[in-house]
Amino acid sequence: MAILNLHRPLTKTALSTIRSALASSSVISVPNHVSSGDAAVLIPLTNVGNVPGILFQVRAKDLRSHSGEVSFPGGRADSTDSSLLDTALRETREELNIRPDCIEILGRLGPPEHNLRGDLTVYPWVGFVYPEPTTLHRSFVDDEPLPSCDLDIIQAGINAPEVDSVFHVQLSELVSPSRLRHSMFRGQRPYSAVNVSDIVRGTPFGLGVRTEALEDDTEIGTGKNEGDLEIWGLTGWYLNLLLRALKLEI
């Protein structure tokens, strides 16, 4: 049974529920030191137009790897980071221009996964994004809707050499059967990819013929059918872990 109302804006009570769910989910410890073999991503929950959802980004088309694909903000740790959480927050600011003091960290997911090359261990955190730093420290009534972000403002601030666009997917859409494609993460673990072609491009999704067969997804891809854009691979897997922790099975 879902522990959140997918059609109501996130509130302080909802954030507390998410924090508790993450704390009770299966995770492993995070290293105390930052290594060049580690990376971190942020799963940014937020309200947009009083609708709860998650921010995703489309990677710039000129990048050498995973160009034009859907991902969470994040990347490899560097020597300036005091922790892997700092890595996730730094990368979020560099890519989406969202300041760390606009983000309330709710917890993390696990276990972390390696990238396909096997040279990075990727640690995911979950946070709620406020529209500005002052709202993070305001006192809200428990069930008062938390303020919404302006997606146009976020889009205007993205780092264009790294990010092509940013988009918001409603929680209810992330579990909509019409968007889901059953697949296998790394050829072993079942999960669902989510088609977001229409949200990103404003065009009908599912242009190709869908198959219900389990397939071997690799990384954060553009989709199994030409013309599709999906949340799948590592990004899709972490999204599935979050939705399972919140009992929003997909």
UniProtKB/TrEMBL annotation:
The keyword Hydrolase applies. Residues 36-192 form the Nudix hydrolase domain. The lineage of its organism: Eukaryota, Fungi, Dikarya, Basidiomycota, Agaricomycotina. PANTHER family: NUDIX HYDROLASE, PEROXISOMAL COENZYME A DIPHOSPHATASE NUDT7. Its cofactor is Mn(2+); Mg(2+). Keywords: Hydrolase, Magnesium, Manganese, Metal-binding. This is Nudix hydrolase domain-containing protein. The keyword Metal-binding applies. CDD domains: NUDIX_CoAse_Nudt7 (cd03426). It comes from the Eukaryota.
